[in-house]
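Need tokens for this chain, all 172 residues.
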Amino acid sequence: NRALVVNGLYGRVVAKCQAAGDRRERCKFYIGPVIGHSSLHPSPELSSYGAEPIDVDVVPLDDVVQAGERVDVVKIDVEGAELAVLHGMTRIITENPDLVIIAEFGSSHLKAAGITPVQWFAAFYEFGFEAFAIDELTSECRAVRPVDMETIDSINVLFARKTSPTLARVFG
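Here are the structure tokens for all 172 residues:
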């Protein structure tokens, strides 16, 4: 909520104290020393800080967003739980053909979750998305494949379908 106020979004965004996933459940959430590095997946990094997990409610995004509600962009930054979030939003993906997803690729987080880069990308490809790495310094996007990610520790990846008008704006 503090970040929403600082960024002038308080009246436009609703914050929920929940984690996104593929099904309703209660899980352990491991809080890291940097709040953005917290995760549903324990990792050696989190363990080394002696973080005590807390219990959180996990819900599919399909249960949060009403059927028929337009969704243009989803940002997924969940430290290795991206595929659970993706599978919990299949209705949203189906109902919104122009949807763009920006997901953080983090090799160490995927390793902690037992997911290979090939599996990670394949899950997005199954929904018809193509992948584009976002260069944080230049804001440029370039097509990317799992093999290109072998030496990348962390990067945001834009996923869009070929028919998405967003691609025309990005590569205009």
